[in-house]
Amino acid sequence: MPGRNFLFVPGPTNIPVSIQNAMNIPQEDHRRPDFAKLTKPLLQDVNRVFKTETGRTFLFPATGTAGWEVALSNTLSPGDKVLTSRFGQFSHLWWDLAVRIGLDVETIDVPWGEGVPVERFKRRLERDTKNEIKAVMVCHNETATGVTSDIAGLRRAMNAVGHPAMLYVDGVSSIASIDFRMDDWEVDVAVSGSQKGFMLPAGMAIVCFSRRALRARNSAKCARCFLDIQDHINANKDGFFPYTPSIPLLHGLKRSLQILLEEEGLENIFKRHRRLAEGVRRAVDAWGLKLVAKAPKWHSDTVSAIRVPPRFDARDVIEIAYHRYNLSLGAGLSVLAGKAFRIGHLGDHNEASVLAALAAAEMAMRDAGLRVQPGAGVGAALEYYRRTAPPLKVKLSSAKPAPKKKGKKGRIVRR
Q: Which of 110, 275, 381, 388 is deepest in the core (most CB within 10 A)?
């Protein structure tokens, strides 16, 4: 199919050309004497993305799923009670992992389309007078439903009842795209991955531990070997890794951090993501469709999950979009299979790329039989982008006025 595939799944995301170029290197010796010149600055700068001055970040050659296990197995013991909530496929999968490694997981289920039920967590922790709950485990951004939860509010609730449980946050599809404040929110372990906001290929789990979480490893009894952070602690202090890392990913991460921290800057990135996401939300409204997220307070700035009317199958939209228009959309997962499709709008995107995805999605929906007015979503989004566009930093060249000449009897005429 001619042209480049329009990748609009919520991960993996598009990789900027400069990051691709940074990773296109000959193979290197990961134990060479000057390897630390590459790695030590990376480990320091990633902390800036997590917004922590006291935490410690570890880079595992793995994915976010491994990051979940890194977080839990290095700080907890079999039988420890963990409080969590399920409201989408990925919060469910983290729950499942916790159960399978032997933790006693207490679950507060809420409907898909909502987020962390802060008040219910608060009431449960308040009743836990013996402090049997050792950890609270939540997803910041539920990728399956396009829902973002209030982690700051959850921490305030935990502090209000004086509960000592550690706070674990899955930030795989939020960190580096949505504001995340590890120190301010007193997060003990935060998990991210390379293939979302960091704009890299999959293959790196990025996990940050607070000082309290680092101390917890001394009493943690969960079995671990490859995912043991102690091996990283021993090797990272000299700028090395306990086993072979993906060196191209490390070079890519270096370039990614330059973009995130220096060239665009995190605050500008957060604003850009919110603006692009709002354009998508306005398009969905103009289409006459609904988001899976049940209220604006849950709206995600990295992914929108869009419901199709009951008599239609979202899988048809996804198939048509891919095979006819070269657009990759995210599928509805688990209970949303066939009921929704997802537009990922995180990472290396701007107004033009999002508008292209909306246009192709409109065509695919119409081809699938949905009664979507042609141009409705695109028009709503583009007008929003135009109204909210930042001021131009270049001076526009003004058209010169048409030359004048005198006509008969001296009257002025224009050419």
A: 381
Position 151 in a domain = yes
pLDDT in tens, 262-275: 999 999 999 999 99
SS3 readout for 157-216: HHHHCCCCCEEEEECCCCCCCCCCCCCCCCCCEEEEECCCCCCCCCCCEEEEECHHHHHH
Total domains in the chain come to 2
204 and 339 together in one domain? no
Confidence (pTM): 0.93
pLDDT at 395: 87
**If you search the block for the tokens 């940050």, which residue do you land on?**
208
Among 361, 363, 305, smallest CA distance to 337 is for: 305
Strand partners, 168: 137, 189
Cβ atoms of 275 and 267 within 8 Å: the answer is no
**Distance in angstroms (rounded) separating the CA atoms of residues 230 and 109:** 34
Residue 166 has pLDDT above 90, yes or no: yes
* pLDDT digit string, tens, across residues 302-356: 999 999 999 999 999 999 999 999 999 999 999 999 999 999 999 999 999 999 9
Q: Answer with the one of 245, 263, 281 that is the final residue of a domain.
A: 263
Do 323 and 221 belong to one domain? no
Domain identity same for 247 and 281: no
Please tell me the distance from the alpha carbon of residue 228 to that of residue 7, in angstroms, as a whole number: 34
Sign of CA dihedral 264, 270, 273, 275: negative
| H or E stretch covering 249 | helix 247-258
User: Which of 344, 335, 295, 342 is closest to 114 using CA atoms?
Assistant: 295
CA 143-145-150 angle, to 5 degrees, is 75
State whether 241 and 298 are in the same domain.
Answer: no
Q: Are residues 40 and 112 in the same domain?
A: yes
Domain of 115, CATH number, reads 3.40.640.10
Cα angle for residues 117, 118, 122 (degrees, 5° grid): 120
Give tens-digit pLDDT for 47-87: 999 999 999 999 999 999 999 999 999 999 999 999 999 99
Instruction: From 263, 279, 304, give the residue that closes a domain.
Output: 263
* pLDDT at position 30: 96
Position of tokens 């480049």?
4
Residue 324 domain boundaries: 266-387
